Structures are given as structure tokens and as C-alpha cells.
Description:
This protein is α/β, with parallel strands linked by helices. The protein has helices at residues 2-23, 46-67, 86-99, 111-123, 153-167, 181-196, 215-223, 235-247, 263-268, 290-302, 310-328, 335-342; strands at 32-38, 74-80, 104-106, 128-129, 146-147, 173-178, 203-207, 228-232, 253-255, 276-279, 370-378, 381-390. α2 packs parallel to α11 (310-328).
Amino acid sequence: xxRFLVLAMAAVCVVGASWGLLAQTPGVTDTTIxxxxxIVQSGGVAFIGVPVMRGAQAWYSxxxxxxxxxxxxxxxxxxxxxxxxPANTVAVMKRLVEQENIFALVNPLxxxxxxxxxxxxxxxxxxxxxxxxxxxxxASPTVPHVFAIQPNNESFGRAAxxxxxxxxxxxxxxxxxxxxxxxTELLDFALDELKVQGxxxxxxxxxxxxxxxxxxxALALRQARAEAVLxxxxxxxxxxxxxxxxLLGFKPKFVGINTxxxxxxxxxxxAAEGVVFPGFGTDPQDPTSEAAAAMRAVxxxxxxxxxxxxxxxxxYVGAQMVTKALMDAxxxxxxxxxxxxxxxxxxxxxxxxxxxxxxxxDDHYGIKTLWMNQLKTINGVRTAEFITEWDWTQxx
Length: 396
């Protein structure tokens, strides 16, 4: 009898310790894991944010519905609209942390919002996984609880400058750049890289993120006789600038960043033809990819009749990264176990949908190889044709 009581007491202690562990882990109960995000879903950038939100939500819903969640816990994904306004982002972050008590920040969208919230995120040691933005600060220096997935502004800025000079042979390079945290970082790296390549930009055209008219900027680029223009702009702004250049009969070679997608055709029409931009994922509509087909099937289940685009794809892949790490962390989920699981990622590529990602405790850089693409009309079909892989570290 005495032995039975001792064993019973030991069992109670183990259960109590496990319950206590969960009680101390924000956002985790015995039945749920609460994940949070800021993703614009209204205003001028909603055409990016809505697919991002839906891409992530589709995968989290699938995990809940078909896989039973993560070790028996269902995922609760809270994606709040910050309207791409950094002041709103700060308010959203405080709500997520102080009211919703989230486990981790996943799939957030936008450099300007992250920059505004960065100190708060660091103070709270909040895990951040798969942020959809180019901000170098996410990856350099390495922050133990922050894991970038997409390439950052150093990769995009230097690669664009290199491609214009080394591949296109441009000697008169101009830069059109939005004046925000993303644009500033891109500009700094591009200017440095052009210097490395022995080229001085003929003009740097800066415009505020609230700009609506781009005719004066197009005229300035034409007057500078630019052969190539680096587009450090969001896709809507890039489209307006390209159209204005086209109206002037000015047709330089445009090299963009990852904000440029096939959607540029919808916004700029034929003027978009020939624009070069880097990618880091397989086209979700690729008819030759089994992984893309599987992804489309899941997406269609939750958003029937909606075409899955590149924004939805990278968010979907990022959500897959999140759930893999949650699963690998084991049933006794803590933030540290989650972080440790991510640090064990080796050559993970979402079944070939993205270049391979490897994390180590001192390297949370994410994707390092860019896939250069060009907008082309082939047999009457507008497409983004793959050109080449580009590793800027090998072209200096």
C-alpha cells in the first residue's frame, strides 16, 4: 500500500510538472496553439496581404482538419489587419501579445510594420517565423528567436545592381526607390554594389510611399538617359512608373525586386514586357510540379474558384515551416523547444517549392539563392520565364 501511494504521488508530480510547463508557455493549452500575425487586408496593399493571409490560413486549416492539429492541439491563427500602417502595426502587436497571449508571431507582412514593432518584439522575446519582408535586421545579426525565410534587402539590392551591370551590360544605371524602411535599405546596398562594380548611378529618384503621380519621375529618368532602372518599389508603384515611361517613349531595361510579380501585367499591360525580377519560389500554377498541384488542391478547398498566386504560395510554404517546427518540438511544447526545432532545419525546401533552407543557431538567414525571371509573352500567354540562378556573393 505504501509503495502504491509513492507511485501515485510520483505520477501526480509528473502530470503537475507537465501542466505547469504548459501553463507557463504563452498561447499553448492542452487543446490549442495560438499563433498571431499582422497582415494588411484593406487599402492599397490588400492585393498582397489578402493572398498572404489566405495562403497561411489554408495550410493551418488543413493541418487542423486533416491531420488533427499538432500533437492533438488545433492551431488558432489570428491575422489582424494593420492596413500597412506602422502605427496600426504597433497596436496590433500589443493586442497579440498582451491580450491574445500568442505563442509566436508567424507570417507577418511588411518591413515598415516590423521595423516599428521591432523593439517591442525583442523585449518580449517573441518567436518570429516566416516573416514576409526583406528587412536585413531579421537575419543580421542573428536573433535567437527570429527566423527569416525569404531573402533580404541585401540580397535583392546587390543582385539587382549586379544583374544590370554584369548581365545587361548597362553603363548608365538609375534607381527608382520608395522612401521607407525597405527602400532605404535596398538603396544603400545597391549603391555600395554599384561602387564595387565600378559604376556611378546617373540618377537616384526617390518618392514617398504615398505618391500617386509618377510622370515627373519618369521624365527625370528619361532626361538622365538611363539604360537600366533598378525598381525598388512595390508592384503598384512600379506599374505606374513603367506606364509613365512608356507614354514618354522611354524604354530602359527594368530590374525589380521580389515585390514584382506577374500581377505587373495586370497593372501595366504591355509596358511590363521584359521586366526582370528575382524570385525564390516555384510558380504555384506550374503544371509540371506535383508539389504545386498539391498546394493548389488544398488552397482550392478553402478558397474555391480563387487563383493561388505567388504571395499565397510563400505564405503557405512559411506556414508549412511553422507546423513542421511545432511537430518536431514534440508534445511538451515550449518556445525554446520550438526554436531548437527550427535550428535543426537542414536543406528543407517544401518539396522543391523554394530553394533549400538550413538554419543553425548562428544563421537564421533563410533562402540565399535567387531565381531570376523575366516577364514575357510566349505563344500569347503572359508568363514569368526563369532565366538563371543568381548568388550575389559569387559575382563580386
